[in-house]
DNA sequence: TCAAGGACCTAATACGTATTAGTGAAACTC
DNA sequence: GAGTTTCACTAATACGTATTAGGTCCTTGA
């Protein structure tokens, strides 16, 4: 199809060679004028000027694709998610990340490539090509709970600049995450201070860092408050909550802590179960939510109360990730390249002192 | 920097020439096998197989940049706005467009380039390079109230596929817009049917198609209902509304129609003026809003009532625009390439029959 | 046996820019 | 005035893939 265009030269968009002809210099000179000369190389002012004039005259604009192929940069950052859906939906808890990334990219004059199509392809077949695609950009941001290690490792090996949004275990992978550990510990501390000594922590089955960190924080906070942590952590997919709730009540549990997931399913399931059990929150049971994105915090069952817990600064994570990525691209990252942002405690209305009625009074 | 890599061949990502060497064929053959042969060209099964094997072995993945440079497509669609801010903010009324575009792009396996950075650059200096940049993609979507004609015309001349989201006057420009004319006429008809015979239509000063169409619809609806349209249209920047409101009341105006703008400023200004004037809506004054994006409709001053009027199917416009763009890229657009989508009437709670109290009763 | 035709593949080139090695000329050095 | 610098620029090549115009060799048919 290339050769199908005999290119009526007047109608073609101008390239450097056109400028070169018009200014009576070589294409290389045009590139040097337009792109800037390397250290210590001189160009006559007159030459520079006539090239600039010709470029202006012809309405020249560099072709970003060619620019990129010739190993320069193209001012584009990629954004790739391993979730099946891209978080353009407002309801999606990852959405603030997108907002933050976009804000900072705009501020930095970078365009953004949303790898939505290839992400989808990758989810159907486990196609490494999909991830490899991000190389059109100068660098790429990744996020999502679950990450295929292979493609990422490959990018690392190739020296392709990227930043993960969320903490990662793999050594050497730059990331911007949230300090779930401290924040979770603080929440548990708050519960303990309110008088709760028997609590449960509800988490998902998988081993995503976001879950691991929250559990660690919960346990750390519990131990710091002198609580018994032996039966504290409960893994659930949300289907057995009614039974759980019943037994916890009998065991004297007065507070439940839940982790926020990207869909918010765990919390929703718990809320529903609490309502079914006819429990009032926080009167009969205190609840705490570990990490909703700022501003998307839901309200507790039965009342208009906002969930107590902490907020995750997703938007700021997005912004910071863009900054870090640009530093990596420019080759001089300001350390650290693995960053954890503090989370904002939220007082909310779902934590209260345990009441003296019902099984809650039982001590043991 | 290109030549700085003596390429320790093991560590470089494989290209077609590597496969060629491994399979004992030429690079061209590799391309033919991988990309598919043109009509009527044959390849030995054994050759094909060994190329495929080698490709698999080496973990080959085509370089999207080179692919694009070689004049093929790259599965990327651009999204460019002429607004100064990209509508990632939920509050932004254009936001649903972004959602729609993203949805459909994902569904069609296309990646999305948000030209946020270059858009910003363009707003600072009127840089044609910024728009030209969209050519990295196979095609591009544009939107925004105000459009520099030059760059767009240039793209048309170059035969670059693009679709405008919103109606355009320029002949030949493909677009997906909303049928503001019919929808606006319907709203005025509704007001007339409720007994309003003196109304005002508030619009902005500029001549964006979105405003022009609404005005045409308002006038058409008014004439169909036999209303006097002579003083109906009022252009305002929102600063003189208090005075306007007062005189309208004296003239017996019982209803005001406002157009929705991307920021919602006009509506907000009117709402504030109505409150300052101590008027109740719809008791003292009926209000109608022409075209908020679905689901973002605000509530009227003083009460929880939703504005009456119509909704703009922005999300669907986004989706349809992606479809149209893909048709254009494939070269066989299903006509028409200029499309208007119907708007959804919204009953709302800000239209009521004019009351018999106050100046409203005056007939003339 | 020779030409015609087909099957299968390769050489060459294009896409548009970036970069480096090098060239010719002028200016300077001693 | 031969050697050295400096200046100002160009030739050549690389980036990785797509495409087309042939080129070989092998069958066929007459």
Summarize the structure.
2 copies of one chain form a homodimer. With 364 residues, chain A is an alpha/beta fold.
Describe this structure in words.
- The structure is a homodimer of 364-residue chains.
- The first copy, chain A, has 364 residues and is an alpha/beta fold.
- Chain A has 3 domains: 9-62, 434 Repressor (Amino-terminal Domain) (Orthogonal Bundle), CATH 1.10.260.40; 76-178 and 315-342, Rossmann fold; 180-313 and 345-361, 3-Layer(aba) Sandwich (Rossmann fold).
- Chain A is built from 13 helices and 12 strands.
- In chain A, strands 2-1-3-4-5-11 form a 6-stranded parallel β-sheet. In chain A, strands 7-6-8-9-10-12 form a 6-stranded mixed β-sheet, sandwiched between helices.
- In chain A, strand 3 (139-143), helix 8 and strand 4 form a beta-alpha-beta unit.
- In chain A, helix 1 crosses helix 2 and helix 1 (16-23) crosses helix 3 (45-58).
- The longest helix of chain A is centred in the last third of the chain and has 17 residues, at 314-330.
- The radius of gyration of chain A is 27 Å and the shape is elongated.
- The relative contact order of chain A is 0.12.
- The model of chain A is unreliable at 1-11 and 358-364 (pLDDT under 50).
- At the A-B interface, helix 4, helix 5, strand 2, helix 6 and helix 7 of A face helix 4, helix 5, strand 2, helix 6 and helix 7 of B.
- Strand 2 (111-114) of chain A pairs antiparallel with strand 2 (111-114) of chain B, so a sheet runs across the interface.
- Chain A binds a DNA duplex (30 and 30 nucleotides) through helix 2 and helix 4.
């Amino acid at each position: 199809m290339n050769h199908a265009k005999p290119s009526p030269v007047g109608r073609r968009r101008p390239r450097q060679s056109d400028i070169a002809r018009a200014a009576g210099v070589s294409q290389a000179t045009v590139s040097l004028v337009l792109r800037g000369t390397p250290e210590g190389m001189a160009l006559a002012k007159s030459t520079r000027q006539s090239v600039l004039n010709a470029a202006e005259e012809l309405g020249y604009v560099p072709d970003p694709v060619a620019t990129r192929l010739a190993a320069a940069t193209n001012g584009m950052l990629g954004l790739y998610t391993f979730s099946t859906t891209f978080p353009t939906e407002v309801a999606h808890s990852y959405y603030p990340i997108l907002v933050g990334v976009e804000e900072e990219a705009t501020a930095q004059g970078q365009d953004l490539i949303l790898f939505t199509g290839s992400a989808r392809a990758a989810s159907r077949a486990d196609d490494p090509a999909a991830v490899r695609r991000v190389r059109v950009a100068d660098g790429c941001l990744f996020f999502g709970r679950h990450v295929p290690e292979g493609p990422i490792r490959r990018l690392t090996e190739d020296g392709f600049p990227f930043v993960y949004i969320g903490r990662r275990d793999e050594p050497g992978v730059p990331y911007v995450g949230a300090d779930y550990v401290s924040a979770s510990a603080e929440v548990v501390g708050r519960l303990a201070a309110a008088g709760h000594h028997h609590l449960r922590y509800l988490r998902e089955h998988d081993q995503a860092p976001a879950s691991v960190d929250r559990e660690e924080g919960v346990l750390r906070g519990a131990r710091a408050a002198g609580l018994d942590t032996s039966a504290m952590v409960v893994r659930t997919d949300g289907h057995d909550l009614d039974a759980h709730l019943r037994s916890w009540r009998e065991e004297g549990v007065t507070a439940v802590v839940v982790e926020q997931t990207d869909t918010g399913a765990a919390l929703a399931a718990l809320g529903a179960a609490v309502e079914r059990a006819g429990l009032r929150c926080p009167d009969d049971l205190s609840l705490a939510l570990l990490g909703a994105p700022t501003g998307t915090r839901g309200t507790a069952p039965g009342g208009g109360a906002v969930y107590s817990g902490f907020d995750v600064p997703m938007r700021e994570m997005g912004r910071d990730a863009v900054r870090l990525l640009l530093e990596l691209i420019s080759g001089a990252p300001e350390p650290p390249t693995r960053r954890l942002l503090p989370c904002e405690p939220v007082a909310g209305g779902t934590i209260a002192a345990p009441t003296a009625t019902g099984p809650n009074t039982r001590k043991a």
